[in-house]
C-alpha cells in the first residue's frame, strides 16, 4: 500500500513566539497587535472624543451654502450630494429636522431644474448670525494661524511641508480650506510656495525666516510661568505608582530636549517633545495617529509611533473610538472638558449647541403631532376623573406620611428610652 506524502508549505507569516501551526499564527499575531495598541480606558477622555455624526453632516451642508450664491441652494442639489455625506433618504426631511439651523421655502427653479418652482433652503437667522461670527473669528485669528503654520514649519527638518499632507491636518490646526491663498500672500517675507518637480501633488510651503520668539515649546512656556526647569507633567492619578515611577525616570534621566533645537539627533525624548508640541498647536489637543505617521520623515518621528505613545501614558492617551486611533494630550483636558479653548473652538461649540437645539425642537413638534393623531384615532383616552384621582393620591400620601412619622417615633423610643 503506497503512502501519501503531503507537502507542507512554509507560512509567510512570522512565528514570533515559536508556536507551530498555520491556524494559530494569525490569532497570535492578532493578539500581539491588540496588545501593541492597548491602553486602559479613560471614560472622561473617551467622552471628549465623542463625535456627533449629525454635526459633521450639518457642517458639510453649511460649507455647501457658503459656496452657493446668496447662501441659498436647491434641495435637489443637496439630494445629489447625500451619498457623499453617507446618508440615505430625502434631503428635505433632513433639513426640516433642524428648524433652528435651516429654513426651507419654495422658490424659482434653477436653469437645470426644468422651470417652475422647487424647494430651496438657506440659513436660519440664528444660524446665519453664528456663521458670520465664525467668519469674523477666522479673520481675527489669521495672525494666530500664521504663527501656528510657522511653528509647524520650524518643527520640520527641511523647514517645508507638503501641502497635500498638511491638508490632512488643516482642521486640527484651524486652517480654512483656502489657507494657502489666504495666509501665504499676506506674509511673503515668511512663507513661499514651491514646486520642485512640477507635479500637482508636489507643492510645498517653505519657511523663509526663522523667528526665535516662536522657537519656544509649550513645555518651556509652562516652565517659565512656574519658574522651574522645563519638564513634562504627569496627568495620571497618584494611585498609578508604577507608571508614575517610570515617568519620573524618563523625566529625570536626561534634560528636556526642545523640538525646536538645532540638534536633530533622533532620541525618544525629542520624539516625545515633537508630538507634544504638535498636539499643543492643535485646537482640540488631539490628532489621528495615522495622519501623524504621514509626517515621520518631516518631523523625525519613529517608525512605530504607536509604541512611543503607549510607553508614555502620563503624557498621552491613545483611543480607538470609532475604530480610529487617536492620541490626546492628557494635560490639556480637565475630565472631558478642554481647558484652554481657542476662539474658533468656542464658536464651533455654539454651532453644535444650536444644531442640537434644532433637533430637540423637531422631536418635540413630532411628538406633539403624533399625540394629536392618536387622540383623533381614540388610542389615547382622556381621564375625566383626574381631580378625584389627585385627591385620592394626596390622601394616600398624607396617610403614608403619618404612618412613617409614627414609625419613626416608635424607633427612637426603643433606641433611647427602653432599656435592654
Automatic annotation (TrEMBL):
**InterPro entries, A to Z:** PORR_domain, PORR_fam
Region of interest (Disordered), ranges: 375-397
| Full protein name | PORR domain-containing protein
Q: Which Pfam families match?
A: PORR
Q: Whose protein is this, by species? A: Ensete ventricosum (Abyssinian banana)
What domain of life is recorded for the organism? Eukaryota
Q: Where do the PORR domain residues begin and end?
A: 40-359
Q: Which GO terms describe its molecular function?
A: RNA binding
Amino acid at each position: 500500500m503506497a503512502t501519501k506524502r503531503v507537502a507542507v508549505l512554509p507560512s509567510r507569516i512570522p512565528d514570533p513566539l515559536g508556536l507551530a501551526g498555520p491556524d494559530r499564527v494569525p490569532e497570535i499575531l492578532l493578539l500581539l497587535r491588540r496588545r501593541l495598541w492597548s491602553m486602559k480606558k479613560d471614560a472622561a477622555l473617551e467622552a471628549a472624543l465623542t463625535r456627533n455624526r449629525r454635526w459633521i453632516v450639518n457642517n458639510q451642508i453649511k460649507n455647501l451654502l457658503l459656496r452657493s450664491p446668496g447662501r441659498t441652494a436647491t434641495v435637489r442639489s443637496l439630494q445629489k450630494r447625500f451619498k457623499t455625506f453617507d446618508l440615505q433618504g430625502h434631503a428635505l426631511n433632513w433639513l426640516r429636522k433642524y428648524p433652528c439651523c435651516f429654513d426651507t421655502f419654495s422658490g424659482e427653479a434653477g436653469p437645470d431644474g426644468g422651470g417652475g418652482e422647487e424647494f430651496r433652503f438657506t440659513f436660519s437667522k440664528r444660524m446665519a448670525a453664528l456663521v458670520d461670527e465664525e467668519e469674523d473669528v477666522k479673520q481675527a485669528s489669521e495672525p494666530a494661524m500664521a504663527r501656528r503654520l510657522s511653528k509647524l514649519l520650524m518643527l520640520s527638518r527641511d523647514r517645508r511641508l507638503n501641502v497635500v499632507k498638511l491638508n490632512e491636518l488643516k482642521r486640527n490646526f484651524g486652517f480654512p480650506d483656502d489657507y494657502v491663498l489666504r495666509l501665504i500672500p499676506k506674509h511673503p517675507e515668511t512663507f513661499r510656495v514651491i514646486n520642485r518637480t512640477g507635479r500637482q501633488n508636489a507643492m510645498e510651503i517653505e519657511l523663509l525666516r526663522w523667528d526665535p520668539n516662536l522657537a519656544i515649546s509649550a513645555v518651556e512656556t509652562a516652565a517659565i510661568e512656574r519658574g522651574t526647569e522645563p519638564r513634562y507633567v504627569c496627568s495620571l492619578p497618584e494611585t498609578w505608582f508604577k507608571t508614575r515611577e517610570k515617568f519620573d525616570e524618563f523625566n529625570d534621566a536626561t534634560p528636556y530636549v526642545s523640538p525646536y533645537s538645532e540638534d536633530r539627533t533622533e532620541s525618544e525624548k525629542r520624539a516625545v517633545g515633537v508630538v507634544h508640541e504638535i498636539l499643543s498647536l492643535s485646537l482640540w489637543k488631539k490628532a489621528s495617529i495615522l495622519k501623524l505617521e504621514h509626517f515621520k520623515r518631516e518631523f523625525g518621528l519613529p517608525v512605530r509611533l504607536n509604541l512611543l505613545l503607549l510607553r508614555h501614558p502620563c503624557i498621552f492617551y491613545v483611543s480607538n473610538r470609532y475604530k480610529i486611533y487617536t492620541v490626546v494630550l492628557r494635560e490639556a483636558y480637565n475630565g472631558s472638558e478642554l481647558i484652554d479653548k481657542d476662539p474658533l473652538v468656542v464658536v464651533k461649540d455654539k454651532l453644535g449647541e444650536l444644531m442640537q437645539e434644532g433637533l430637540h425642537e423637531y422631536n418635540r413638534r413630532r411628538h406633539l403631532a403624533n399625540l394629536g393623531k392618536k387622540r383623533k384615532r381614540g388610542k389615547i383616552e382622556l381621564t375625566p376623573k383626574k381631580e378625584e384621582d389627585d385627591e385620592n393620591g394626596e390622601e394616600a400620601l398624607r396617610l403614608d406620611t403619618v404612618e412613617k412619622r409614627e414609625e419613626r417615633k416608635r424607633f427612637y423610643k426603643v433606641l433611647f428610652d427602653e432599656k435592654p
